[in-house]
Amino acid sequence: MRNIVKHAIFLVGALFLLTLNALALPNPSNDTFRPENNSEEPIGVDICIDFIPYNHDELRSHSDMIVIGTVKEILPSKWNTIDGKQPDKPISELYFENIIYTDIIISVDEYLKNPLSSRDVVVRVTGGTVGNVKMTTDADPSFKTGEKVLIYLNKDNNSNTKDFGPEHFIVTNFYRGKYTLTDDGKAITLYENTTLNELLHTINKTKNKANDAGISNTGILNTGILNDTETASKQEQNSSSTQEPKSAPLMSSFWAFVAVIGVIIYQRKKKQ
To answer: Least C-beta-crowded within 10 Å: which of 44, 67, 70, 118?
Structure first.
């Protein structure tokens, strides 16, 4: 019986020491943790946006301005901060309000709706690369210098970008509002191949629709971190990880102690 008690005391002591050691381990989720990128590839931040595509009539009706022009210049990308630099916090802590944007200068050949006096228009898209961070979206259109385009535009009413930089516009209905024009009269988006004449026919309609006041781009944003080849889920940025509560080791020790006591009681009853 004494040997059993000695063994039980030894086991309880060992479990107690293991518990103290587990509690002393550093917490990997500490607020000072910052993800590191030791490769030459930038850290990728992908923004997924769900939206309902407009047809040609809706694109015309929901746009403040429509232009035909040529991509004159693509300006360096910036963060939506006063100095255009990355916010002073880890990438894992960036949220929807922290984004990179890129301004595109369009040399206007023709205004098709609500002309301005300027021959250049600034079009802003979400995404770009600043330092070691590359931000992309699956909805905003891409541009190439020298590209001939027809673009449906809206005033930027997004609180995260509207007050930064020069006067600018955003593309109506994301990539659906930007058409690449070809020499053979085609007008092309990622998922549509139509003609310039068809678009002009829709735009030149004089009948306004009841919702002609305009609707800004809306969508459900989901952010995720793409560190090298790691894929994102929106979603929200995947900066958190599942953690076991610190009370778990203590609970394990408690049940182990109960088991030892149970063995002792069983041995005593068996000898009786």
So the answer is: 118
Assigned domain for 160 exists = yes
On whether residue 1 sits in a domain, the answer given is no
143 in Cβ contact with 69 (< 8 Å) = no
**How many domains are contained in the chain?**
1
Nearest to residue 235, comparing CAs of 249, 219, 257? 219
Exposure string over 157-170, b if 16+ CB within 10 A, otherwise e: ebeebeebbeebbb
Identity of the residue numbered 122: V
Q: Are 80 and 117 in contact, with CB atoms under 8 Å apart?
A: no
Domain that holds residue 125: 43-226
Residues near 254 by Cβ (< 8 Å), separated by ≥ 6? none
Instruction: Write the pLDDT tens digit of every residue in 140-172.
Output: 999 999 999 999 999 999 999 999 999 999 999
Domain assignment present for residue 117? The answer is yes
Lookup result for tokens 């930007």: 178
Task: Tell me the per-residue pLDDT of 5-18, one tens digit each, with 9 for 90 and over.
Answer: 555 565 556 566 55
Which CATH number covers residue 83? 2.40.50.120
pTM score, whole prediction: 0.64
